[in-house]
Write a structure and sequence with these properties.
Layout (H helix, E strand, L loop, with lengths): L10 H12 L3 E5 L6 H16 L3 E6 L17 E2 L4 H9 L3 E5 L11 H6 L3 E6 L10 E4 L6 H13 L6 H14 L10 H11 L5 H9 L4 H14 E4 L4 E6 L1 H6 L22 E7 L6 E7 L5 H8 L3 E2 L3 E6 L3 H14 L1 H4 L4
Bound molecules: guanosine-5'-monophosphate and manganese (II) ion (MN).
Amino acid sequence: MISMLENLLSESEARKLDALLEGANHIIVTCHVSPDGDAMGAILAFSHYCWRKGKDAVPMVPNIFPDFLKWMPGAERVRIYERHETESDAVIAAADLIVCLDFNAPDRLLGMKKPVTESTARKIMIDHHLDPSDFCEWRVSRQDMSSTCELLYRILVQMDGLEPLTYEEAVCLYTGMMTDTGCFSYNSSRSEIYYIVGQLLTKGIDKDKIYRNVFYSYSPDRFRLLGYLLYVKLDVFPEFRASLMTLTREEQRRFSHKKGDTEGFVNIPLQINKARLSVFLREDTERNCIRVSLRSVDDFPCNRMATEFFNGGGHLNAAGGELSCPMDEAIALVKKALRQYAPLLKGEA
Ligand code: 5GP
Ligand code: MN
């Protein structure tokens, strides 16, 4: 079948990427802190690609990834930087190529930022976030892509064709596309996405099983935490078509919270009739700050609100930030933001 996908890289970009990969012997494949399905899908798909080409590649994440992604093929080979800093520093220092996937700036590497930016290895970035910084010599940044995994699929297939793409690569790429689009419920109306899904299915992947692996994997504690949040901690502001959930450190202890347990919770209140914005505040358990997550539907600009009020940024419908103040002050700030954005929230602006 003739591919309906246009080549995403120019001839010269493709040649340069090919030369960089060809010339590399020790490759680090990395992604942003607190990796999600797209970040893990991208680093694992790329690592499998390197391995099938006989290259030494190490998938490395800045900190731990959630349990619901541990089933992914190759996950057992992922090195967690903050668990073995000194050894990992040596691995990074020995690398001649660092592949940066699903993030746009070295700050998103936390503790890994220093060894990566100080490394003399060549660096490339493949990403779909806004405002990429220029710490890599070769970069593809496409905000119109649903996910880094979609972008990566298109690059790998442009380079080598579909035929050599393996089952493992297909599983990883599908996982990233599925998770970054909320199971194809947002950022997912371009027909190419479903063409790619169709092509990935020809590799024998079981998309229903992948869905269950990721989403039907709650621990009893995580399930009860969700129930508690929705019943006790959800504040709905119908006058602003918005809602707020908060989670303290004490509550996280009470529900034996593990990293990634609250992933996706912020999306749920958007299911309320007429809701346009959902805000989630969570006291960080590793650092002394409150993590802010914003999700919206339609044209409400979460990124503008995150920049203006929460020291952050992000996409139109998904943004985040950080506050270093007590929870009651953070809640007051959210309410102030809601009042200021009332016309936009109500769709009157
Ligand atoms: P999440 O709510 O999942 O933590 O973040 C959603 C999106 O918001 C991320 O994909 C990222 O683009 C953006 N984001 C999250 N936290 C920050 C932050 O602290 N600073 C900036 N600039 N963007 C963030
Ligand atoms: Mn992504």
